[in-house]
Amino acid sequence: MPSVHPSASARFETLDLLRGIAALFVINIHAYWTGDAAHVWSKGYLSVGLFFALSGFVIAHAYGNRLTTGLTTRQFMLTRLVRLYPLYIAGTLIGAAVWLVLEIRAGNAPDLKSLALSLGWQTVFLPVPPSQSIHSHLFYPLNGPAWSMAYLLTVTLVFALIIRVLRAPVLAAIILISGVWLFAVVAREGTLSLPRGWGSPQDGIPRTVFPFFMGVALYRLNSRIQAPAVSGWLLAIAFTVWIVIGRNFDWRFDVLSVAIVVPLLIWFSANARAGPVARRIGLWAGAVSYPIYILHVPLRELYYRTFIRLFGNPLPDNQAIAAASYAVMLIAVAWLATRFFDEPVRRWLGRRLALGWSVKRAK
Fold first, then answer.
1. Quick check: is 113 in a domain?
2. pLDDT at residue 312 in the model
3. Does the residue 167 lie in any domain?
4. How many CB atoms sit inside 10 A of residue 57's CB?
5. Following DSSP, what letter does each residue of 155-214 receive, concatenated?
6. Which domain holds residue 125?
7. What is the pLDDT of residues 151-183, one digit of tens each?
8. 18-63 residue pLDDT tens
9. How many separate domains does the chain show?
10. How many whole angstroms separate alpha carbon 293 and alpha carbon 272?
């Protein structure tokens, strides 16, 4: 099949292909039926570092120059909120409804005050204080993965505020300091699967800052030195194999992944060869990766309960069937949510807020 030299469009299609694969790794480690240590996908949490690094790369590409030539921080953050909020609030509301139904079905008297407080905090994208939460150990009890969106929004705001002074020495210092901090945290905890709720909120800082600003640095590097053009499919396979073999290694594998392997994957993917099929799949994978990620936990609860009611507990005999059908269901819902909810709502919000913003350009 003929390949296309990596134009700006092709670059992001290959990066989006990785993003889509990474989203599937995340849902596998959060599925109940995967059993002990999530077996093959036990290192799937490393995908979150890839998300952060990709965000740094893409945001530097899309907004770096604009933030220094007229785009205000307010306009920039509104654009980012419009990109994230519709599916975020959908996942939050689904999580609230599922929790309430499950409490009632279990014969419990739901703590409606804690539910209302949790919903109130999360509606404005803020973590829920433990004393007011339905699950006191979680930042975002109605939709756990939302923690990463909150950290990402914060580091994105920092990027916008310091962009005018973010020259090479400053960027290098941020990467070095956050990298040393992250290494110390991972060595202490024995994993990059951080932070672990309110017990260690500070651990989310280096986990977000280091890969994000590494992504910014990779974008700047790529504008000067481009990696050799290789197949996007080869990179997707390499990423998958890397995650699978990682289950046999300890926290040092996590450090190697976030510091070396993920940056190399992004650098090579930015210049990968993409044939017509890979380009179409990449675009599609990028479109559904965020809805898969932000909706999978509340939808998992619905799916898991339904599966048990219809077929019994999936462990151990029906584990593979349950996992495969869950993935198919989630991908289908993610596409429908993107096509018929997220894109129309974002277009409407963009017009209302006069952002001069296009759904197709908002990555």
1. yes
2. 84
3. yes
4. 29
5. HHHHHHHHGGG--HHHHHHHHHHHHHHHHHHHHHHTSS----GGG-GGGHHHHHHHHHHH
6. 8-352
7. 999 999 999 999 999 999 999 999 999 999 999
8. 999 999 999 888 876 655 544 678 899 999 999 999 999 999 999 9
9. 1
10. 25
